[in-house]
Design the sequence.
């Protein structure tokens, strides 16, 4: 039997947002569990763990014809080596630098065989400073990317802002990413069980995701902004049409598409078809059978330069009715 | 190798060979003995000729030795070290073992004594290399930690040190005459001349992450393995680059046949060997042997004298094959656990493999491999 893979949690967030505070909370609250922590810079705040590996951020492009496919060479080396150690880890936690692009980290878990064989990416957790987010997000594009890539967003330091500002921050976050679960915190004080063991990249759990706020209009100002687009239809999807469209779209636009998730009601199939992607890296599987009542396909793209109207008409053209 | 010792599943296999059931016949030309799994992950296998033993580094911070006398001996803990031994090679003259650890120490094992030859500020020493000169007594040691690479002489004095690499050094290889060393990294290889400090290093460029490097025994070629499921070869004379691609998996190991005629690699469901005679492998498809159903070659080790290569597979199978005839025999059946270390004794009569569960297989050749 295949041994259970060690879950890896990726913590991102801008400088001072509260990443290390969250990390230390996990480490101190998860008594008796053993974590390997990989950091890219030692901050002022110490990390309370036996095994902390300091990594140089080494971003490597792959020669696989996919121009956006980058991996983190340092993580491949470190994770492969750590997995040979006799100490069994309950998990690994990677804390990125404030300005890190999460894409190479996430892609490492889909591209490298040694990493894939031994560990699995559990979730991308992005810590957001409620106080400074709105000012900083327009200045630093990494901040928007970190939010766009997130499965869980810790909206931190909520005690330092009033209700209006908090709502504005939440609206901005939701505009960037409709898939992520937002947890409002003070001092990164999220319930640990809502941060760890989320299985956010586990295809069998894609079904649990509920794209938020499907009906809300996006009020983004620039086309270059990262937005999330939710598409839905109750008409069954014609597999061949959809396959042709999504392949072509991702080949052409994969650089702009940060994350994709979908649950499809394929014509003539009793089971859900689930898939997800990071840029051009795609992964798919058959999910649980449909209930007869609600056979509805849902598709979410998070990325830049996305035209919701155009995407919607392309998606609707993949149905059997089209 | 005699005809009835050969098994070539690609050509129809042998009676009783059922890849689906995993049933494997060990060739009658091989005497196999195997020790039970230790339960720790081997990180390297080194043969010590003087001690007639194999030394295996393990992820539980232990060095274990196994006598090659085939007298039913079990692996014994030779030494405990304070960090995980992550790289190991035979030391100068084959006497002792040189070891790099994830505690940033460069260690030397002699018998059961461990001495520290060098240490870093904690950066892992993941790459090491040794060159023995013609006397068989003296030589050079090299180690890399992060972006930095250091070459020491036999007395421990620094011959050269450099951190002018675009990434962590992922492979080291001395030229066969010991006058140069090649360091593999992102976007290529840097070659240093050790005998003339004034000579500028030579950078061999090829885009991508190079994860291993091996200089051919005749000094003509430098070959790297890449994260991109391909290899790259440079002809040293004119620095011409050649690309060797088409692998389904990433290439973890490279080995040169003793005469430098072929470079063999892991990364496919067969052991692939590229003809590097003449101007190099360009335009020549690789020779293959040892197809294993649902298996990928993880480790390769060339025989010390003959045109024979051993391959260790992801399912624990070990195959020994002749490169030019493309024929193979099974030396160890599948254990279900990937081979993580593979080494021949200097006389080529014995092959030692370790799988990820820590089982060690000792394979003794009952007859000459090439007649």
Sequence:
């Amino acid at each position: 039997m295949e041994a259970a893979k060690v879950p890896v949690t990726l913590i991102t967030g801008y400088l001072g947002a509260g990443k290390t505070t969250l990390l230390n909370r996990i480490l101190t609250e998860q008594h008796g569990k053993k974590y390997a922590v990989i950091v890219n810079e030692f901050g002022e705040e110490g990390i309370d763990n036996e095994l902390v590996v300091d990594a140089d951020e080494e971003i490597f492009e792959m020669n696989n014809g996919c121009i956006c496919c980058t991996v983190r060479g340092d993580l491949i080396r470190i994770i492969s080596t750590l997995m040979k150690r006799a100490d069994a880890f309950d998990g690994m936690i990677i804390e990125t630098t404030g300005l890190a692009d999460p894409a190479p980290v996430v892609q490492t878990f889909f591209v490298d065989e040694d990493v894939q064989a031994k560990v699995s990416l559990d979730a991308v957790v992005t810590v957001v400073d409620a106080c400074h987010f709105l000012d900083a997000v327009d200045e630093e594009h990494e901040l928007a990317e970190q939010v766009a890539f997130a499965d869980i967003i810790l909206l931190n330091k909520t005690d330092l802002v009033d209700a209006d500002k908090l709502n504005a921050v939440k609206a901005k976050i939701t505009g960037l990413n409709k898939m992520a679960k937002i947890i409002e915190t003070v001092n990164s004080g999220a319930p640990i069980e809502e941060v760890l063991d989320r299985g956010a990249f586990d295809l069998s759990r894609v079904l649990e995701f509920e794209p938020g706020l499907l009906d809300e209009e996006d009020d983004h100002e620039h086309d270059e902004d990262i937005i999330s687009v939710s598409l839905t239809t109750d008409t069954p999807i014609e597999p061949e049409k959809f396959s042709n469209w999504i392949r072509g779209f991702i080949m052409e636009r994969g650089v702009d598409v940060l994350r994709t998730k979908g649950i499809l009601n394929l014509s003539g199939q009793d089971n859900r078809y689930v898939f997800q992607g990071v840029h051009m890296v795609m992964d798919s599987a058959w999910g649980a059978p449909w209930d007869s009542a609600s056979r509805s396909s849902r598709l979410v793209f998070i990325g830049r330069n996305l035209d919701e109207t155009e995407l919607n008409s392309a998606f609707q053209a993949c149905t059997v009715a089209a | 190798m005699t005809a009835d010792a050969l098994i070539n599943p690609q050509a129809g296999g042998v009676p009783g060979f059922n890849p689906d059931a995993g049933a494997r016949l060990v060739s009658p030309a091989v005497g196999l003995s195997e020790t039970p799994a230790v339960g720790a992950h081997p990180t390297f296998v080194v043969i010590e000729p003087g001690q007639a033993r194999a030394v295996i580094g393990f992820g539980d911070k232990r060095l274990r030795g196994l006598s090659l006398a085939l007298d039913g001996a079990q692996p014994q803990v030779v030494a405990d070290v304070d960090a995980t031994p992550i790289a190991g090679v035979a030391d100068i003259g084959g006497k002792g073992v040189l070891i790099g650890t994830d505690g940033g120490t460069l260690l030397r094992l002699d018998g059961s004594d461990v001495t520290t030859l060098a240490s870093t500020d904690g950066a892992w020493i993941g790459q090491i290399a040794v060159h023995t000169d013609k006397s068989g007594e003296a030589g050079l040691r090299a180690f890399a930690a992060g972006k930095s690479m250091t070459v020491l002489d036999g007395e421990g004095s620094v011959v050269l040190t450099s951190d002018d690499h675009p990434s962590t050094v992922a492979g080291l290889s001395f030229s066969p005459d010991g006058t140069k060393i090649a360091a593999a990294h992102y976007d290529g290889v840097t070659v240093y001349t050790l005998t003339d400090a004034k000579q500028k290093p030579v950078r061999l460029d090829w885009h991508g992450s190079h994860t291993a490097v091996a200089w051919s025994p005749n000094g003509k070629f430098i070959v790297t393995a890449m994260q991109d499921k391909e290899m790259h070869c440079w002809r040293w004379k004119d620095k011409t680059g050649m690309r060797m691609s088409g692998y389904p998996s990433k290439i973890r190991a490279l080995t040169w046949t003793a005469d430098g005629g072929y470079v063999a690699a892991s990364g496919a469901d067969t052991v692939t060997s590229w003809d590097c005679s003449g101007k190099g492998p360009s335009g020549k498809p690789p020779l293959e042997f040892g197809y294993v159903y649902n298996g990928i070659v993880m480790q390769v080790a060339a025989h010390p004298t003959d045109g024979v290569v051993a391959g260790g597979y992801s399912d624990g199978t070990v195959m020994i094959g002749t490169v030019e005839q493309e024929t193979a025999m099974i030396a160890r059946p599948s254990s279900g656990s990937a081979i993580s270390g593979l080494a021949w004794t200097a006389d080529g009569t014995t092959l030692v493999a370790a799988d990820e569960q820590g089982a060690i297989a000792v394979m003794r050749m009952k007859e000459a491999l090439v007649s």
